[in-house]
Design brief:
Arc Repressor Mutant, subunit A; 2 strands; 11 helices; 2 domains; elongated
Length: 241
């Protein structure tokens, strides 16, 4: 039974990969309907349960959508960057948790990637972006705000900064950098950091962005990086890590 289950899993993975490749190669058009389960079973010479498992894999990758009814079935879905954010975050989080990545390495990567957005962000940020960043800064200034909520607000502010570059590819790539790496940094530094200092730096980053100064925004992000690294160094030294 175990071998049968393993073979079925392997076959469903191969079928899903074959369909995925066909989608990426343009052999299957966006919005087009896949053959029925019965037709796919005949095409790949497998049982319908194996086909269903393959379709579940494709749906999990946001490559297909399913509809019920007489005109239903599985359809090729147009994958949007927003749909892929969670996969990017999950993958980045797993990579960080399963591998021996030093704090400095994660911090360096995260801020380097964010600084890559500042030129475009300074040119393209809208008043709404600035207003939402200042809303997060005001939120962070609340004394009653829990550490968990402060960290969540911290992440949202930096996501807004990245999104203000209006480049979906950068936003997608940095979804993992900010939402996977930032919690790691918050977890290590939250007990030692000064909220007032974080708020000050966030305010100055937003002010620089409002002035459309990429250079100053960059400098303030570098200052925040240096502060974050110094906090981590002291924390790790205190705990002999």
């Amino acid at each position: 039974m175990k071998n049968t289950k393993k073979n079925s899993t392997d076959l469903s993975a191969k079928i899903a990969e074959a369909i995925r490749t066909a989608i990426l190669n343009g052999e299957l058009d966006i919005g087009s309907r896949l053959p029925s389960e019965a037709e796919l079973s005949e095409l790949f010479k497998v049982g319908r349960s194996t086909v269903r498992e393959a379709l579940k894999r494709l749906a999990a990758q946001s490559l297909i959508r399913t509809e019920r009814g007489a005109w239903g079935g599985a359809f090729i879905k147009r994958l949007k960057y927003e749909d892929a954010y969670e996969q990017q975050i999950t993958t980045s989080t797993l990579l960080l948790s399963m591998n021996a990545i030093s704090f400095d390495t994660a911090c360096e990567a995260r801020f380097t990637l964010e600084r890559a957005c500042t030129l475009y962000a300074s040119e393209r940020r809208s008043d709404l972006h600035l207003a939402n960043m200042r809303k997060e800064i005001n939120n962070q200034s609340l004394k009653a705000l829990s550490d968990e909520d402060f960290c969540a607000s911290d992440i949202r502010l930096h996501r807004i900064l990245v999104d203000s570059a209006n480049n979906p590819i950068l936003s997608y790539q940095l979804a993992g950098a900010i939402e996977a790496m930032q919690p790691l940094m918050n977890m290590i530094t939250f007990s030692a950091r000064s909220r007032e200092e974080i708020v000050r730096l966030h305010s100055e980053i937003t002010d620089a962005l409002e002035k459309k100064s990429a250079l100053e925004t960059n400098d303030k992000l570098s200052e925040l990086e240096a502060y974050t690294k110094s906090l981590a160094k002291n924390v790790l030294k205190t705990h002999n890590l």
